[in-house]
Amino acid sequence: MALSGRRVAFVVFAFAVVLLSAGICAAQPVKFARYPHTFEGKLAFTYHGDIWVANDDGSDPYRLTNHMARDIYPRFSPDGQWIAFSSNRMGNYDIYRVPVTGGEPEQLTFFSGIDVMANWTPDGERIIFRTDRRGTWGTPLYTVGMDGELPMPLNMDRGYHGMMSLDGKYLAFNRQSFRYWRKHYKGNLSTDVWLQDLATHEITQLTDTNLKNFREHRQDVYPMWGADGMIYFMSERDDTYNIWKISLEGGDPVQVTKHDKDGIQYPAMSPDGKTLTYECNFQIWKLDIESGSTEQVHVDLGFDPKENLIEFDHVNSQADGFAPSPKGDYTAVDYHGEIFIVPTDQEVGEKKRVTRSPWRDRNEKYSPDGKYLAFMSDETGEEELWIYETETGTTRQLTDQETLKRGYMWSPDSKQIALVGSNRLFIVDVEQSTVEEVGHNSAYGYYLNDWSKDGKWLIYTRWRDDYNQDLYLFNIETREEYNISQNPFYDGDGKFSEDEKKVVFRSTRNGDRARVFVVSLAKVTVDRDDPLWREREKNGENGKEKKEEDEQQEDAPDEPEEDDEKKDDEDEQAAVTDDGGKAQPEDEKEQAEADDSDEGEEAAEADEAEEEEPTLVIDLDGIERRAEQISDNCYDVDNLFVKGDKVYFTGRDGSGSGFFSLKLNGEGERKIAGGSFHNITPTADKSNVFYKSGNHVYKMRIGSSRGSRVNFSFTVEIDKPKEWAQILNEAWRVMKYHFYDENMHGYDWDAIRAKYTPLLDYVGSYGEVYELANEMIGELNASHCGVSGPEKRMPNAYNSAILGFEMIPDGDYYKVDHIYREGPADKEWVELEKGDYVLAIDGVDVRAGENYWKILNRTLNDYVTVKVSDDPASGETRDVRIDSTSTGALGNIKYEEWVESNRDYVEKISDGKIAYVHIKSMNRSCLERFTQEIRRFYDYEGIVVDIRYNGGGNIDQQLLDILSRRAYQYWTNRWAAPEMGRRHRESIVGPKVMLINWGSASNSEVTPLGFRDLELGKIVGNPTAGAVIATGSYRLINGARIRTPGGLVVRYNPLRENNYGLNLENYGVAPDIWVENTPEDRMKGYDRELTVAAETAMDMLREREEKITEMKEAERKKGVEHVRYINSNHESEDDG
């Protein structure tokens, strides 16, 4: 099949890129050199993960560092003798320095978190760096000296990048992080330039000082001091990143550079403030501060790569995906984008290679007759359907369509393939290679489930306009579909019974966990609960009626059929053997018994089956009433298939995951085997199943409880430059089809790819490919985007042991300054108090100034002995044993301490009337915690719901439902407490305040906007991030992942089409009451935002109480008048 011109152009272009990549090491002007810095005629930069030094005109370059790790942010010392940088050569980024003339780098920081180089102090005595080692919602900038002493924080609440003025009096810095590769963002998440007086520690905001103008705030990043005393920084104020400057007194910034086609990145000022270097259009530039002139620097490099560009991955039975042949004697497996056919029994048959290319080949499926193996390949740039002929070994392309391929299914006669492309359904003729569209679903798309034996009918699951999924029968000839589930809950994954009179499927209609259901396609003519029917059944008088009524089941909708996207997230594993398919002797008896139980009766049924083709009879009248649940104990069912009078499926019961069987009449529910059975697939005769557990493929006979591993070995060649081209193109294609806006936010997505693809010539690692992909994706100005993935982790990585307390120098020793609540040191049996002195850690003496992280990075045991003393001069000491934890666990300990401190504070200032909860994330566990806390605070009179720093999730509906609840009744009795029976119990009666800030993102923006629109209370704080897209994740060829921002979120507006109002992406929710914590607030431990929120709740409570008092008075007056009226009537009657 001939390729279209567009496809040919892509293949030629990609091949040209590969050819250039092959010659990358020849001397040529480089691009994508990162983090340039210059001083006294020298230029340093990072290229292919190493530090290089050249003359500042680009001549005479030499490699300063040469390591498998990644060395970044080189910075010359003020005396020009050293270059400091960050490197992950110990498994995480630490600070190092190396002489400009070369030598072995010296490590200066020792912590298992992240330490990233910023700048030297002007005197050259210390290095400023950012880190994640301290703080709940942000960490100060730190400094470290040259003698390996303990790094110390600067006197600030948080900092991300900074530089001291040349006289050492001031620090210009950013307070929060930013994504350097995202373009055009405006909002409250933008970072600004701040100034600190290092003598008084006073902190002043210099840019974007008007908070209420937040929707026009741009990124102002990398503040630097020039020799003219001005602060230079990078900003998108003219919609393209350029260099701007501002005085330390503030005022309006002035634009310095005028780049318009591509923005600036990674600017850095020389130690003398005279020259600023930066990247622009992926090349190095210099800015002369005195004259304001700019100059591009050309650097020619020729070098030997530090690692092989071609590697060979020797595979031992691992697979990303698989497909058994119809007989089960062979298994097609894909691994790292290559497809092989391997014999299921290693001693019978030979392996075959199906594909050999740098592109991604996967999602293989045998035709029912075994003549073909279909698979998906992106060799043309688009992912298309290809065919491999098993007899001749030839391959050919079947489709040529610019659409997202969601899944496909073979017809029973192997002549056709049903294919889902985006939201359209196609039928592909295998011989003619023709493609015909037969269906279109505007609501989303289709999930193919089953195909009738005569080839005339499909079962598929599809979305409806109301966001529900139902099960449909589709007539291929007439193109008519029939809804056979008709239920407001999820119904999907339908399979025909063998006589095709019923469909089994899975549904959540009886709860939120999928169960097995069955529906009869024809009207049900008998009542199986009728005792007379049961009598005839017992006497064998019902004939075929039994068979017609015994097949009931249900299943859930298939996800897009991409084996590599299914996570092996079960801890259990089925019992397996590694003998390549041979049953172990001790299993033979069990195997025979299993065959007798499940196979024997089915074989007998097969002998009696009529050979006539069944005619599909569908009676839709009342079909929604016929579905029956037939599984009782199993839930989360999946992977259904029918054999004889049984349905087989994976699922869970009280003992965990497993593989189950069940008769279609609901009897005989049985757990065949326990463990994980991912992508379980039966052979054509359904006598065996194949499945994945971990990264391996297993085969198991239907009646057995044990599987045997399919053993094989082969070698996959990985040509890195070609694979990097595939990764970048797939990232581009994934965004093309998965991005929520088909107009790509108004940007030319084809042109953007054309801009970035040539840069593949200059990358030297997977990490740099991810950077390139992110630069490309960043052009869209969208949240919930990005590529991240595996790099080579350096050996000897350490993990710092955390003891759960902080220390400060005091004289000759360190003194305990803080013990984290509920941390490792906050135990009844740990005799440690604030103010104690630490004399030794893990048997090593420690003195003030020494870097104790060197000790804590290599502890032998989890329990660490700390020698402490109330007074070191007294000579009295005691040993304290502490069960250390990890840096990750410490983050949660700090978080819980922060929450409890806030709760105590709100309790105190509200006299116990206002409850406080913080929601850390919008996920199920946080929802359960929130529900428990609402029960706990049942009798409080109001609540502050804090969602600051909450990155999102998807529980807004449940949260708003709980917050919407009102008290409506009391149920009590004569002995009960008056308040005990209030309904609804999971509610707060009284004022509600929601607290937000710039760290509230995604679902934490949807929630406060819903809170406002539903008029549930008041919103306090400062605007949210403006990052609202429903997103997913997609696995790339090497295990990296790209986020897929595919869901539009808009405000409800009944006056507009579809009731679609404002798009919440790049919007940001503003508060009702504006307040923001200052740096001074945070440094003092004062939460101004929380204070205002609690005070607002108290004000609302007072207003509520006043209204209630007014209502009571009105009711009292009304009652008095009513009494007067009655009394007057009585008096008139008496008078009569």
TrEMBL record:
Catalytic residues (positions):
H784 (charge relay system), S1002 (nucleophile), E1065 (charge relay system)
Ranges of biased composition (kind: Basic and acidic residues) = 532-549
What is the name of the gene encoding this protein? tri1
Signal peptide from the UniProt entry: none
Record Gene3D superfamilies: 2-enoyl-CoA Hydratase, Chain A, domain 1 (3.90.226.10), 2.30.42.10, 3.30.750.44, TolB, C-terminal domain (2.120.10.30), Tricorn protease N-terminal domain (2.120.10.60)
**Quick one: where's region Disordered?**
532-617
Top EC group: hydrolase
Q: Which GO terms describe its molecular function?
A: serine-type peptidase activity
Family to which the UniProt record says this protein belongs = Belongs to the peptidase S41B family.
Q: Where is the composition biased (Acidic residues)?
A: 550-573, 587-614
Q: Where is the PDZ domain?
A: 791-847
Q: PROSITE patterns attached here?
A: PDZ
Q: Which UniProt keywords apply?
A: Cytoplasm, Hydrolase, Protease, Serine protease
Pfam families hit by this protein: Peptidase_S41, Tricorn_2nd, Tricorn_C1, Tricorn_N
Q: What is this protein called?
A: Tricorn protease homolog
Q: What is its EC number?
A: 3.4.21.-
Q: What do the Gene Ontology cellular component annotations say?
A: cytoplasm
Report the subcellular localization. Cytoplasm
GO biological process: any one? proteolysis
Mostly located where? cytoplasm
What is the annotated role of this protein in its UniProt record?
Degrades oligopeptides.
Q: Which PANTHER family match?
A: TRICORN PROTEASE HOMOLOG 2-RELATED
